[in-house]
Amino acid sequence: MSETESIRIRPRRIRLVCWASAAALVVVFTLLATSLTGPTGNGYGSFQRGDQLAMIGLGVFGALGFLLFTRPMVEADARRVRVRNVIGSYELPWEVVRGVRFDRGAPWASLELHDDDLLPMVALQAADKELAVEGVRALRRLHQAHQTRLAEGASGR
Q1: Cβ atoms of residues 39 and 45 within 8 Å
Q2: Which of 40, 45, 55, 61 is most buried (CB neighbours < 10 A)?
Q3: pLDDT (tens digit, 9 = 90+) per residue, 113-137?
Q4: For the chain, what is the HEC assignment?
Q5: Rounded (5°) CA angle 130-73-76
C-alpha cells in the first residue's frame, strides 16, 4: 500500500433515488401550481400568480431536502479518514480508530473508535452491496497499513 493511496466513497443507489425523487417532486408541485387558478371554494378568495410561484418554491425546497441525502461521503488516505454524513462531518486520524465495522443486518458501516464510540458512515450503505463491501475492505487495508507503520515505528525499524 503506497503512502499516497487514497479512497473516496459515495453511495450509489440512494443518490439515484434522491435525484429521481427530487425531480419528480418539482414536476408534481409545478403541475399542481398550474392547476391553482380561480376562486377558492365559495368565492371569498382566489389563487394568484404568487400562490402558484409559492407552490413551485415549496417543491424546490422539498427537492433540496431530498438532495441532502446525496451528501454522504467517506475519504481516507494513509493519515486520516474524513466522514461526511447527512448532517455533520468528521475528520479523524487513524490513531483514534480501533476498527472498521459492517455488522450483519446493519444499514451502513461504522468506525469503532478507541473511546468505544461508533461513528456511522452513511456513505457505505448495505443497499449498495458490492460497492459497500469493497469500500469497507479498502478502509480496512488503509487502517491495517497505518497500524503496521505504527508497529514498525515502535519497534525502531
Answers
A1: yes
A2: 55
A3: 999 899 999 999 999 999 999 999 9
A4: CCCCCCEEECCCHHHHHHHHHHHHHHHHHHHHHHHCCEECCCCCCEECHHHHHHHHHHHHHHHHHHHHHHCCEEEECCCEEEEECCCCEEEEEHHHEEEEECCCCCCEEEEEECCCCEEEEEEEEHHHCHHHHHHHHHHHHHHHHHHHHHHHHHHCC
A5: 85
